[in-house]
Amino acid sequence: MIGGWLRRVIDHDIFYSFTRSPVTVLAALMTLVILISSILAPCLTPHDPFNPASLNIMDAFTPPVWVEGGMWKFPLGTDDQGRDILATIMYGNRISLIVGFLSVIFSIVIGVTLGMVSGYIGGWLDAVIMRLADAQLTIPSILIALMVDGIARVSLPRELQNEIAVYVLIFSIGIAAWPQYARVTRSGTMVEKNKEYIAAARVINVHPVMIMLRHIIPNVMGPNLVLATIGVALAIIIEATLSFLGVGVPPTTPSLGTLIRIGNDFLFSGEWWITIFPVVALIVLVLSVNLIGDWLRDTFNPKLR
Amino acid sequence: MKRNILKIAIVFFLMLVLATPAMAENVLRWASQGDPLTYDPHSANESPTIGASTQVYEALVNRNWKLEKEASLAVSWEIINPTTWEFKLRKGVTFHDGTPFTAEDVAFTVKRANAETSEFRNYIKSVVETKILDDYTIQLITSGPNPILADQLTYVFIMSKKWCEKHGVTEATSFKDQEESYAVRHANGTGPFMLELREPDIKTILVKNPNWWGLKQNPHNIDKIIYTPIANAATRVAALLSGEVDFLLDPPLQDLERIKANPNLKVQQTAQIRTIFYGIDQGSAELRSSNIKGKNPFKDPRVRKAMHMAIDIKAIHKKVMRGMSIPANVMTPPGVHGYPKDLDEQRPPYDPEKAKALLAEAGYPDGFEVSLDCPNNRYNNDERICQATVGMLGKIDIKVNLVAQPKTLHFPKITGRKTDFYMLGWGVATLDSHYVFTYLLDSEGPWNGSMYSNPRVDELTRAMEVEMDLAKRDKMIRETWEIITEEQVYIPLHHQVIAWGMNKRLEMPMEPNDQPQFRWARMK
Amino acid sequence: MIFYAISRVLQSFAVMLVTAFVCFILFNYVGDPINNMVGQETTIQDREALRERLGLNDPTAVQFLRFLRNAAQGDFGISYRLQRPVKDVIPERLPATMELVFASAVLALALGIPFGIYTGLNRDTWLSRAILTGSLAGVSLPTFVIGILLIYLFSVTLGLLPSFGRGETVQVIGWWTSGLLTVSGWKSIILPSITLCLFQLTLILRIVRAEMLEVLMTDYIKFARARGLTDRAINFGHALKNTLVPVITVTGLQVGSLIAFSIITETVFQWPGMGFLFIQAVHFADIPIMVAYLVMVALFFVIINLIVDLLYFVVDPRLRMDRVETAGQG
């Protein structure tokens, strides 16, 4: 069964175009490596860099292993608190990926629901939702995320902020991105709605919600998924930026952005590795996801095929 | 052809005109991370703010860079009787607006600084009455004998009575006041520089006061001072390295080597009159942020001692402070009258095992949770020290939740007694141990966030305020230090070492209280 | 056309009202405004008196109307952090941001459109490929990374350009201080505007390119070619005009993005503008500044939206036709 499915995938023309593009294959490979390393991070790292009790400050500022003073225990060096950079990158990737994916899923849930309802029911509900989406679309998501995050921060007591920072981030970034999914879903829904099989389902009294769930969703998810890959990359960048500005994840559970922020202070004083490696990691991650998104978009765009 | 020559001539002339002023003036551009809070010299008792005031305003008595008292607006003073000090004032001094300085201004200043809204009350509250004998002689009558009045007066800056009345600022602007007053952005003092422009958070410009009385003894050659606050550490040091600023008050410690390596720059450093320590709430029945309910673990001195032992101060000294600190066991540094050198050298060695045993003995074998309040823009590497502490306390099972915030949000928690565990750094303005006791250890001390209350300490502190027999007084100081160290009331970390980064063209003596006085600066 | 304009204006008002309401909730109910305004020593009676005086005991609706009236006049109270009225602080910072955004927008357009055209017309040259790869980098590199690297290169290593601040500024009209009239001002604006424009430049480039590619494949271009028009006539006379429509929209949106990214750029370069002010306000929980910023940003986007919509209406005849048809159905 798996063999059969695998053969179908390999024979598909999309897979063909995939293998023809070496850049995309490379990108996909990188993403896979990052994904696996971040899931398996606890097994691969000497200590948990998020647990302050496991740190030894005497390890701080160790250079990468190929520089004098480096140790194999910390292949990419350590930061100012003694955290292994490689380990922190892997754990930081986790946060970036989790925030990236969860916020996109959050956006999709909201966006697809609203878009579908809007497209299917039409009328004033449609007008209101679309106006809302249009209005929000003009504001760049990073600004919305910053605003929502800022408001959340001042509204919540400081002591709680450390624990729920990640959820606030997911919420902020998620809220910022729903309109595009809503619009795309709405156009897809409006197209599907007029097709015969939907009319047939209505005739036999299938409940509208059932129609939406079983028939419309599968047919409008395509463009949403394309948007999603780009969305993940954007979410990762937004999270890194917010953390860099100091309004993202707390410094005790650093993400790539926080690491860069910490390392920024040391960039010019000789401990370059605290900034440079997370920067490289961030670029690689975002680039890979972007490239896959680009390829998906080109592949699914019927005009260019 | 003629037109071309004309054009060239004009350009040349313009260049001359534009270039010349730049060559004739000595402009000192400097930066640090914290903008002064206000220019009203009685509003905010904060080091950077006081530092800004000293360029423009002056007190009766000044401290030089060796921290010795010297005559300033008062040429001499003597104690006539235990409650009366007589000051002879300097003649021929004018304020920046041209009005002459007289005893009237001193009397007015004493009243203003003594007001409810002034944060400088503690320096002057012992003075209950002023008697003007003539234009240049004034007597300050104190409520009881006050052996250190002259030391306290170094921070009471003299304002012009006429100017304050003219601009409606006879009341010290309360720092938390709703309205901005004229004195916050304008100044009229007797000092070596005049305030030309004040854009809070953006820049402040001072210009030379050509009529300053001290110009003969202190022939400084600075014509203009431009100050810019730069919050970001990397940007700050980049500004110094690229030559955009000539002087950096607080270069990041990790960049000192880079500054030293630059052929145009130099670093000056000295031990500062400031100690960094942790305060722990030992007055509340139950902690606000802990999982231990019904009792307060910090009340037990064994818990406090365990925490003290669990902090590897040598590692912090080496890795976090990069050698720019002096590990301490008491909360005041050398240079302060009454500093107990022997007690300072008795810091127990780093021993997490023993600490854990002590904790278990005190009844907390599994440790406990607590929040640590930490400023993130006030002391050298404050947040990093706290982060390192979180790791170290974690090793003895005290799980710390770090809450780092700017000083304007952090300090009210201490003065409002709303914190379980906090970091604080204390400078000693009067250079006398009493300053430390009265603010931090007296039951009613305004900055006693640890709510420590010991009747004997209270008794001693208040007694030393009025004890004129210096030998007896020193004994009181010594006894207080012994009590506090034995009970581990605070957890001292280290005495700060400060470094200034500056252009080699700038000659300026280093000040252990981190307040540069540009009256002694010279640019080559 | 009139119906369209009026309905859009009304919708804009609605958006502003909702924003104002959110801000009002933030202003009055988050934390205690009284605590943030007075010192610790203030007695309970004084606090109560202050509450009465500020009208904080009135019903919510009344307070909201008061808030609206104040906001309309630009009065947002006193900044907790700076202890000064917000309406004095904002005009000090606004020119800095406006000038930075303006410089970046000009840069992005001046470079983005030509690059887009070039890569659209010459798909396979190595220069095209280089520009496109570079554009991918422009999107992947976060703004703050670009800023830091630029500072490191041009300020510290080469010592050519300043790394912070606006340089000398000149009071131009009323409260507008300009950094564009001094040499040091120009030097200071170069690095921040490059940092800020890169993201937009790559976006404009890709959009112009994509549009050029699509339009060049359409039928009427084919017919023009068949008719024997020169390449130049086709490319610039026909193709370009039609690519301008989405570029207009995008440019309108770009200014919005520039405002967003200016927050980051200003923080890295210590540029004393609105964005930096906002970030500091978030760190310090300085709600009056945050509220003022939110309202201003909302206003700004609403106005941009309005202008773009109306412009679109004028430029694209198809919209006008739709309006005429649906006007009857209201």
Which secondary structure elements does this structure contain, and how are they paired or packed?
The complex is a heterotrimer of chains A (305), B (524) and C (330).
Chain A: H1 2-11, H2 13-20, H3 22-39, H4 41-44, H5 85-121, H6 123-137, H7 141-155, H8 158-193, H9 196-203, H10 208-245, H11 256-264, H12 273-300
Helix pairs in contact in A: 3-5, 3-12, 5-6, 5-8, 5-10, 5-12, 6-8, 7-8, 8-10, 10-11, 10-12, 11-12
Chain B: H1 2-24, E1 27-32, H2 47-56, E2 61-63, E3 69-71, E4 74-81, E5 84-89, H3 103-113, H4 121-124, E6 127-134, E7 137-142, H5 149-152, H6 161-166, H7 182-185, E8 193-199, E9 203-208, E10 224-229, H8 233-241, E11 247-248, H9 256-261, E12 265-280, H10 301-310, H11 313-320, E13 325-327, H12 341-344, H13 352-361, E14 368-375, H14 382-395, E15 398-405, H15 407-415, E16 421-427, H16 433-440, H17 455-466, H18 470-487, E17 491-503, E18 506-507, E19 522-523
Parallel strand pairs in B: 1-10, 1-11, 14-15
Antiparallel strand pairs in B: 2-3, 4-5, 5-7, 6-7, 8-9, 9-10, 11-17, 12-16, 12-17, 13-17, 18-19
Helix pairs in contact in B: 10-13, 17-18
Chain C: H1 2-29, H2 33-37, H3 44-54, H4 60-72, H5 86-121, H6 126-140, H7 143-157, E1 170-173, E2 176-178, H8 183-216, H9 219-227, H10 231-269, H11 274-284, H12 287-315, H13 317-327
Antiparallel strand pairs in C: 1-2
Write a concise synopsis of the structure shown:
The complex is a heterotrimer of chains A (305), B (524) and C (330). By secondary structure, chain B is an alpha+beta fold.
Give an account of the 3D structure.
The complex is a heterotrimer of chains A (305), B (524) and C (330). Chain A has 305 residues and is mostly helical. Chain A is built from twelve helices and no strands. Chain A starts with a helix and ends in a 5-residue tail after the last helix. Chain B is built from 18 helices and 19 strands. Chain B has helices at 2-24, 47-56, 103-113, 121-124, 149-152, 161-166, 182-185, 233-241, 256-261, 301-310, 313-320, 341-344, 352-361, 382-395, 407-415, 433-440, 455-466, 470-487; strands at 27-32, 61-63, 69-71, 74-81, 84-89, 127-134, 137-142, 193-199, 203-208, 224-229, 247-248, 265-280, 325-327, 368-375, 398-405, 421-427, 491-503, 506-507, 522-523. In chain B, the strands form five sheets. In chain B, strands 1, 8, 9, 10, 11, 12, 13, 16 and 17 form a nine-stranded mixed beta sheet that branches. The mean pLDDT of chain B is 87. In chain C, β1 and β2 form a beta hairpin. In chain C, 38% of the residues are buried. Classes of the chains: A mainly alpha (305), B alpha+beta (524), C mainly alpha (330). The interface between A and C is large, with 38 and 43 residues.
